[in-house]
Amino acid sequence: MSATVQAQGDLLLSASNLSVRFGGVLAVNGVSFDVRRGEVFTLIGPNGAGKTTVFNLISRIYTPSTGEITWHGGDAPLKLTQQPPHAMAALGIARTFQNIELFEHATVLQNLLVGRHVHRRTGFWREMLFTGATRRAEVHARETAERVIELLDLQHHRDSLVAGLPYGVRKVVELARALCTEPKLLLLDEPSSGLNVEETADMAFWIQDIQKELGVSVLMVEHDMSLVSKVSDRVLAMNQGEVLATGTPREVQTDAKVVEAYLGSVDDVSSLRRVA
């Protein structure tokens, strides 16, 4: 098999020349990247760089002004821009949000079972009559949710209302709900946001487990560079809606354009050192 064919077989998602304009503002400009099967691919950049906008394009919350997003997770390549937002979970794309989106007055288990809804095929009348097929589907949903609860160490919180849980635990519950959809690609929008050092270390552990034990690819937006360096296979740095650099975490963090975007020009950094 040629390297080109093998590389194409490894692709899970391709973004090509993505641009999106809001009125007179060009929020994303000509962004292209690929996500490979089984990898953690991370978008980094200063606030306002366009990272979450790219996530919203993939999630179909926004439609690109130009460019295309191709999904390679099915039997044949599929143009995501031609799909409605509610179809993403069924295709195998799940997402968490920077601002947690959970049912606060439901238990952890109930929230996870909501994530299984995309796989239910029993229909209204079978649900009403609670047929054998419905019972089997319910058992399978519970088994899947329990496996995720065990993976993410949520046993102690299984029957707790989300409203009474600490913020860090809620972040893990939202991650668990996304995993209950059995995704091929998991979009994590700033998973360490609001977490302390210990909770961020736990989050890194969960992400590595999701990648290695479940074989789920991860596309992540993140500011915490220690987390990025620990879990990422490849990193794409953005600034002002454009791509600055792509490569390993070390390659990107030492790229001159990335350093300038975060710290200013070489002259700026030198002057800071002189003042210090």
Automatic annotation (TrEMBL):
CDD domains: ABC_Mj1267_LivG_branched. The keyword ATP-binding applies. InterPro entries: AAA+_ATPase, ABC_AA/LPS_Transport, ABC_transporter-like_ATP-bd, BCA_ABC_TP_C, P-loop_NTPase. Residues 13-265 form the ABC transporter domain. GO terms for molecular function: ATP binding. SMART domains: AAA. Gene3D superfamilies: P-loop containing nucleotide triphosphate hydrolases (3.40.50.300). It comes from the Bacteria. Keywords: ATP-binding, Cell membrane, Membrane, Nucleotide-binding, Transport. This is ABC transporter ATP-binding protein. It comes from Variovorax dokdonensis.
